[in-house]
Amino acid sequence: MASVSLNVGGRSYGGWKTVRVTRALEAISGSFQLGVSERWENQHQPWPITEGDECTVLLGSEKVITGHIDSRELGFTATDHTVAVSGRDRTGDLVDSGVQLKGWEFSNVSVLDVARKLCSPYGVVVSMQGGLTAPVLQKKISFDPGDTVANALESLCRTAGLLPVSDGSGHLVLSRASTARCSSDLVEGKNVLSASSKYDQTNRFHKYLVLGQHQGDDWINGSSAASVRGSATDSNVRSSRTHVIRPEGNVTPALANTRAQWEATTRAARADTVSVTVAGWTQSNYLLWPINKLVHVEAPSIGVSGDLLISQVTYSLDIHSGATTQLELRGPKAFLPAPVIGGENNYWKELIKPV
Prior knowledge:
Blueprint: E1 4-8, E2 11-13, E3 16-24, E4 31-37, E5 54-59, E6 62-76, E7 81-89, H1 92-96, E8 105-106, H2 111-119, E9 126-128, E10 141-142, H3 149-160, E11 163-166, E12 172-175, E13 186-187, E14 192-199, E15 207-212, H4 223-226, E16 228-233, E17 242-245, H5 253-270, E18 272-279, E19 294-299, E20 304-318, E21 322-330, H6 348-351
Parallel strand pairs: 9-12, 13-19, 15-17
Antiparallel strand pairs: 1-2, 1-5, 3-4, 3-20, 4-7, 5-6, 6-7, 8-10, 11-12, 14-18, 15-16, 18-21, 19-20, 20-21
Helix pairs in contact: 2-3
């Protein structure tokens, strides 16, 4: 059986009946739910586990959660005595807690520095994903005293095309979609237990129009400044559906076209979702299936063939299915950074490079 341990106060707890651990690219905090026997098989005395306790959860030797126990449920029958325990990463405090700042407005400062100020009161360390440079805010951003830290972080990261993601060790990493690959492919008839896909055109359009204005200068003036237009087409949408975007701030024709193309590209990628379940928790290299890595999928029965990005993983264990991993997969272009209109942002050069 797969090895699972919950460590609290320097002690390890076992005797698991059910396990469910979830981490997601679009979630600030990972979570876990464990159905446990209160007595470890090698212990005669029960070990107390209390809500609020600091804890770590390890699958095999890999740490997947570092945080706190949120809740417990106790029960017994004539033959059994059980404890159900659930909790989240330390970053879960950011979801529940309010912003504490000495000042509420920021500009001309690194996004990473602002994120660290937001997270510092809660002991959460923030870093950049390897290979990325923290953008500098060129436009003013402000927060309200009633904001949660998670909402403030999402607003901040949206201006820089970043995703705030828990790394499993209680820290927060400002990330973008990775180009790193898994060591295993997902192949129907080989290692895929089950799979499903959903294709939805509800939020896709045939044509995207960006209509804006630009302050006149030596290069853009007159009617060109008063009526800036950009467009893109999604040829896979056969109706005449058109989506019109009116961005705020100065818009050049090049930026208008970039924004229109971004809308067409990301909406198409987000319209398709794939879920795959595999046996066990690890790849061929014996490491856990990760989030934010590319994996090649061959599943002709659901119309999938190509590289997808793992956006969420759920590791499960129960007496019926044993250890399994459910992978939620999206097209990598679903996570392209959103173009920010207005201001000479120093990360624009990253956004307009081919991905």
